[in-house]
Amino acid sequence: MAIATDLHTRPLTESLDPATLRLIDTDIHNDLPSLQELRPFLAREWHPYLDNGGPKFAARYYANTGSGRMDDAVREEDGLCAGDPDWTIGQLMVKYRIDLGVLTGGLTGAISVDHNARFLAALASAYNDWTLEKWVRPYGCFKGSILVTPQDAAAAAREIHRLGDDPGMVQVLLASAARIPYGNVCYWPLYEAAVQYDLPVAIHVGAEGTGIANPPTGVGYPSTYLEFHTDHSQTMMAHCVSLVTEGVFERFPTLKFAFIEGGVCWAPYVMGRLDRLYPQLKAETPWLKRPPSEYIISNCYFSTQPIEEPDDHKQLLQLLAMLHAEKTVVFASDYPHWDFDNPILAFAHFPKELKCRVFVENALEMYGPRLLAPSAR
Q1: N or C: which end of the chain has fewer CB within 10 A?
Q2: How far apart are CA 68 and CA 114, in angstroms?
Q3: Any idea which of 50-59, 186-195, 357-366 has the lowest mean pLDDT?
Q4: If we measure between CA atoms, which residue out of 67, 2, 58, 70 comes closest to residue 31?
Q5: pTM higher than 0.90, yes or no?
Q6: What separation in angstroms does the CA of 114 have from each of 111, 161, 208?
Q7: What is the mean pLDDT of residues 161-170?
Q8: Residue 69's pLDDT band (boundaries 50, 70, 90)?
């Protein structure tokens, strides 16, 4: 039986040796038990928003009629799967032999697509400080994400400047749900700030069709959660094409961009189609200096969850080879959601070298030295 290590139970006080790591999880949804927990971190002028029931966030209309979370992981005291760090360490980090985990929380959609950007920017700052104090600094196994408001790129840039040097934060996080594709120049101040601190930018699915965001699909709104969940990759594809064709990676050549919880097998299709069309249409994008697929391979990362699992594992390995997964794919469990990927079982058919890259080495390259650095300032 696995046991907790000092890394799991104590603050990280010195840099880790990467050779000792077995597994890095890039998508852990720690729960915020109540918005009231953010009150000490939130500027006083916004406290009325927490009174009388708190703000009303836009919610998706699709109910998961199966299991919405890992029911065997629920903590009896609060009814949450990941509301307590020590509980989460036991249920996830120790049980599945995960050394480091990047927290993605549960407010990403609300912060990214709701209407009142000024309040949301203040709430994001409070949430980021709460994450550092409760989860990151006391525990060596957790790192945080800087949650920002993409609908107000100037405010997002200010938040990145505020926390960009904090060793407890390893990426900038926003929802894949959006009003405008993420290659558009309106977001470039956000990217400029992220590059300044060598922080990857990650987008995460889940809030499509809510708030100010566009519908979840290119043809409108699905009828069921099955349809909604299957269509997740559509927004990822659109943002990926936008980032490449708008020239984001020419303007910011060191920017690393991660697509979290959107699957991976759509990416080879996008790469192939872009490269097929580019020679005939490149006059529209004179700022591009390389074939589109090269920007994806050099600047983009894709999390495994929810990994496509055909009956013939060779087919998946072929698609991963087309994506250059040894450079571009990182492990994500998506804990504690219903479609959690068990790293001990789900990747048993991966060759050893590919598993090492996906489980550890690619994440080290994406996040850089701060992933291994002490989180206490």
Answers
A1: N
A2: 23
A3: 50-59
A4: 70
A5: yes
A6: 6, 23, 11
A7: 98
A8: low
Amino acid at 95: K
What is the maximum span of the chain, computed from C-alpha positions, in angstroms? Answer: 61
Cα 249 to Cα 172, 182, 256, 293: the distances in Å are 16, 12, 9, 12
- C-beta neighbour count of 364 within 10 angstroms: 18
Give strand ranges (E) for the chain. 24-28, 100-103, 142-147, 169-175, 201-204, 257-260, 300-303, 329-330
According to DSSP, the residues that pair with 220 across neighbouring strands are 217
The residue with tokens 């698609």 is 319
Q: Omega into 343 within 30° of 0, i.e. cis?
A: no
DSSP code per residue over 228-281: HHHTHHHHHHHHHHHHHHTTHHHHSTT--EEEESS-STHHHHHHHHHHHHHHHH
CA 295/CA 245 separation, integer angstroms: 10
Whether the CB-CB separation of 363 and 371 falls below 8 Å is answered with: yes
For the chain, the straight-line distance linking the first and the last C-alpha, in angstroms and rounded, comes to: 34
Q: Are 280 and 326 in contact (CB under 8 A)?
A: no
d(CA 73, CA 88): 9
Mean pLDDT, residues 287-304 taken together: 98
Q: What is the pLDDT of residue 74?
A: 83
Q: Do the Cβ atoms of 139 and 99 come closer than 8 Å?
A: no
Residue 112 contacts residue 181 (beta carbons within 8 Å): no
Return the higher-pLDDT residue of 340 and 241: 241
Cβ atoms 245, 266 nearer than 8 A: no
The interaxial angle of helices 232-245 and 266-281, nearest 10 deg, is 30
Do 258 and 171 contact (CB within 8 A), yes or no? Answer: yes
- 150: CB partners within 8 A, 6+ apart: 112, 156, 174, 175, 178, 182, 187, 190
Distance, CA of 15 to CA of 45 (rounded, Å): 39
Q: From edge to edge, which strands make up the β-sheet containing 169-175?
A: 24-28, 100-103, 142-147, 169-175, 201-204, 257-260, 300-303, 329-330
Provide the Cα torsion 286, 288, 293, 295; round to 10°.
-160
